[in-house]
Structures are given as structure tokens and as C-alpha cells.
Amino acid sequence: MTHNIWDPLHECLERKDLEHLQLERLRSTLERVAKVPCYQEKFKKAGVGPEDIHTLADLAKLPFTTKDDLRQNYPYGMFAVPMRDVVRIHSSSGTTGKPTVVGYSRKDLDDWSNLVARFMTAAGVIADDIVHIAFGYGLFTGAFGLHYGAELIGSAVIPMSGGNTERQIMILKDYEATALVCTPSYALTLADRIAKMGHDPRTYLSLKVGLFGGEPWSEELRREIESRLNIVATDNYGLSEIVGPGVAGECLCKKGMHIFEDHFIPEIIDPDTGEVLPPGAKGELVLTNIVQEAIPLIRYRTRDITRLHYDACECGRTMVRMEKTMGRSDDMLIIKGVNVFPTQIEEVLFQVEGCEPHYQLIIEREGTLDTLEVQVEVNENIFFDEMRKQRAFVEMLEKRLATNIGLHAKIKLVEPSVIPRHEGKANRIIDKSTK
Ligand code: DLL
User: Fold this and answer.
1) Which residue has the CA at smallest separation from atom 10 of ligand 1?
2) CB of 214 closer than 6 A to ligand 1?
3) What are the residues facing 234 on neighbouring strands?
4) φ and ψ at residue 259, rounded to 5 degrees
5) Distance between Cα 284 and ligand 1 center (Å)
6) How far is Cα 67 from Cα 303, in angstroms, rounded to an integer?
7) 3-state DSSP assignment of residue 329
8) Is this model's pTM higher than 0.85 or not?
């Protein structure tokens, strides 16, 4: 039962023991955050405090923390330890406005490496592996997080960093990497480039497994990556505000990502009312740090929409599983009154033979409504087909979007290699509406 499990003592805890540990850790974290001015104010305003938390259900009495709180306390106002105890600083990958800043104590870094080692082990990574990290090293938590987790397992780490795709491919090949770490969209970019260089991506490299995260991706994209690179593609989730990668990760059952609940308490809420939803309901994921020293956040609203599954997993872990997130509620598009996530569009497109897994969404405004043009790459046979056949293909795609997800969008077919490729997180939306 402990096969492929890094820390069976915690990862396989019986739920009642887990809940006991969670409550104890929550209460001690609350004592510490009660010294942070932002929380002092929040607790006072809500008329609650650490002394009111007697059960895990009492967590719901506490106010939420949002990205705005971090922004208002930029850069270090939410830290719960003095700067002398902080040994690392990272921040969110957001490209607009001020980033959110997070800090780590020495213990936080050790814990973080352990958390990452957990999901990498769950995905099958062992000491014999050679792990190629293609996330950019920098303020982004992706590269450093995976780096130290892999080293802890004892794997040989190649700290390649992002960009320079042809060189990445040379290093991947020559250094015989067996595990690839990057965003799912970059895995696809690598596969494409290998093919363009005249090699078969299924056999050119020594890769066995991919650890992909940092952005939403559909099951269809997983199948595409697995078949193109001939690897097992696993998903892992995290956000810089909470720790970075290492919040949750898939085991080889691939039935959702185990959230490491001895470090984080997950809740699902209705994003509009803030009400806690019952197990199994779809809603916004809210996370509470119960171990973090430098910047423990209470009921942090991730904006990520998902669902939690508490039934047993065959791998032996007892930790709850979160479904692949459809995306952040901020990424949800409202097209002619229909709510849709880019990953849902991806799912529909990638099921169609002839569509390449590269697309872009152009939003424009007509009167008071947003309209959407979906540009999708198709193979050369379709792109250079006679007009009549092309039109039929477009109509078929438009109909599928309408029947499968209720979306009325215009499809534009583009030639292979026209859609920009991504080196980090994919940005597939071009918003030309002036809201
Ligand atoms: O992306 C941390 C990370 C790095 C996770 C590498 C996994 C691997 P941020 O830059 O703060 O941190 O962005 C966090 O990215 O709230 C989600 O919206 C999205 N995200 C991260 N992982 C996944 C995933 C890192 N596996 C935000 N599936 C999160 C879907 C993901 N979305």
C-alpha cells in the first residue's frame, strides 16, 4: 500500500485522525495570525477570534482572505514572522498590477520540498530519474518548488529554466531526461518542435513521465500530450499565495489531485454568496494554511472552480481529491449570456479529427454583448481543402460548440503553426472588447 507514497504516515491518515490534526494545527496557526494587523482588523470586524474555533466546522465563522488583502498589504504586510526568519521570497506570476508577495521561513522551505516530493512520488518519480525543469527560474514558484522536491527524492535535477526551445530539446535528448516539468502547453510546444526538427517525438527522447501544472488543461489535452510524447502526463496544482506547487497532485490513478490536507484545509464555496457548499458540489476552492510560518493565509479565495471527492482512492492515500480546475472564475467568459471556460472549448475542439491542439480566443463587443471568435489550427489537408468542405468543417465545429456547451461562437480555421506557441503559462485570450 505504501508503494509510490512519499509520506504514508500523513498521506494515508484515517479521516478522524486527520481532522484531529487539522484542528490542532488550525488553532495554533490562528494564534500566530492573530498578531498580523490585517487579521486583527478582520477578526475584530467579524466579531470572531481564535478562541471561537472549537471544531473544524467553526472555520466557516472566519472571514475570507483575498488577493486584494495581499495587494493592500504589499509587499510584506501579511507576514507573520519578522524578516530575520524569512529566507526566500517569491511572488505570483500575474502580469497586471502589483504582484502578490510571499515569504518562506527555513521550515517552510523544508515543508514545501516535502509537499512537492509527495506529488512527484505519486506520479512515479524516483531517485533514478533525471528531472528536466523547464519552468522559468525566478519569482515564479514553479521552478524552485519542483527543483527542491525532486532533489529531496534524490532524482538528478536539470535546472534548464524556460525558453530557447531547440536548446531544451538538445539537453532533454543528450542528458537523457526521464521526467519533464513544465506547463502542459509548453509540453505540446516541445512535441511540435521535435516533429518540426524532423524527429518522432514518441521515440526521440527518454521521457517517461510529465509533471504538468500552473495552468488549466483539459483531459483532451492530456491525451494529446501523452500520445505525442509517449509519456504518462500528470497534473499538479498550486498557487503562490498558499505555497506554490505542492498544494495538490495526481497519483497514477489519475482520478483527481490529492490535496495535502495535513497542510491545507480545503472548502468549496458558492463564489457569489460565500456560503460553504456540501461535499461533491462544484464551486470556488478556498484554502487555509495550517502549517506555514511566514505567511499563513486563512480561508484564501483561490477563484479556482472545482469539486472535491472524499471517496477512497485505490492508491491508498486518504487525502481528498480535487477535480481538474476549469479555470479561475476570473477567466470565465460570458459570451452572449453563456458562461464558458476556455478549457471547455478546448475539450470540444480537441475531440475533432483534423483540429490541432492550438487555439486562440478573440473577444469582441457588439452593442452590450461580447462575441467570440475561436481561431483553431487545422492540419494541412483541411486547411487547403476546397472551400465547400472547409465551410462544412467550420459549421460542424460551430454546431458542436453550440450543442455541447451552449456556446455560439464563430470559428476561424488557421494554418498549422500560426497560433503563437507558449513558453510558460499559455495566454489564449485576446480581449478586443472595450469594457
Ligand atoms: O502557478 C504555482 C504552480 C507552479 C503550480 C507550477 C503548479 C506547477 P501562480 O503563478 O500563483 O502559481 O498561479 C496560480 O494558476 O490559482 C490556478 O488558477 C492556476 N493553476 C495552477 N496549477 C494549475 C493546474 C502557480 N494544475 C494559479 N490546473 C492557480 C489548473 C492551475 N490551474
Assistant:
1) 93
2) yes
3) 211
4) -90, 130
5) 14
6) 10
7) helix
8) yes
- Residue spans of the domains in the chain: they are 1-328, 332-431
Grid coordinates of 103: 515569504
Cβ count near 337 (within 10 Å): 9
C-alpha cell read off for 365: 463587443
Residue with cell string 466546522? 57
Per-residue DSSP letters for 322-345? EPPP--BGGG-EEETTEEE-HHHH
H or E segment at 350?
helix 342-350
Nine cell digits for residue 205: 527522447
Sheet of strand 179-182, all strands in order from the earlier edge strand to the far edge: 156-158, 130-133, 179-182, 209-213, 232-239, 244-250, 257-259, 321-322, 308-309
Atom of ligand 1 nearest to the CA of 216: 30
CB 224 within 8 A of CB 125: no
- Ligand 1 neighbourhood includes 237 CB (under 6 angstroms): yes
Tens of pLDDT, residue by residue over 88-117, are 999 986 666 788 999 999 999 999 999 999
CA of 367 to the centre of ligand 1 (A): 34
Task: Work out which ligand 1 atom sits closest to the CA atom of 244.
Answer: 2
Quote the CA–CA distance of 146 and 234 in Å, as a whole number. Answer: 14
Q: How far apart are CA 278 and CA 268, in angstroms?
A: 8
Q: Which CATH number fits domain 332-431: 3.90.550.10, 3.40.50.300, 3.40.640.10, 3.30.300.30?
A: 3.30.300.30
Q: Which amino acid is at 384?
A: F
pLDDT number for residue 1: 44
In this prediction, residue 95 carries a pLDDT of 61
CA 316 to chain centre: 23
| Nearest residue by C-alpha to atom 6 in ligand 1 | 142
Q: Which segments in the chain show pLDDT lower than 70?
A: 1-2, 93-96, 434-435
Q: Are 118 and 153 in contact (CB under 8 A)?
A: no
What's the CA-to-centroid distance between 190 and ligand 1, angstroms?
A: 20
The predicted pLDDT at position 93 comes to 66
CATH assignment of 1-328, among 3.40.50.150, 3.40.50.12780, 3.30.930.10, 3.40.30.10 = 3.40.50.12780
Is 49 exposed, middle or buried (CB count within 10 Å of its CB: 0-12, 13-18, 19+)? middle
With a 6 A CB cut-off, is 375 part of the ligand 1 pocket?
no
Looking at the CA of residue 100, tell me the nearest atom of ligand 1. 11
Query: What is the distance between the alpha carbons of residues 415 and 133, in angstroms, rounded to a whole number?
Result: 31
Q: Do 1-328 and 332-431 share a fold?
A: no
> In which residue are the cell numbers 494554511 written?
289
The rounded distance, in Å, linking the Cα atoms of 67 and 419 is 31
Contacting residues for 86 by C-beta, under 8 A, at least 6 apart? 79, 103, 104, 105, 294
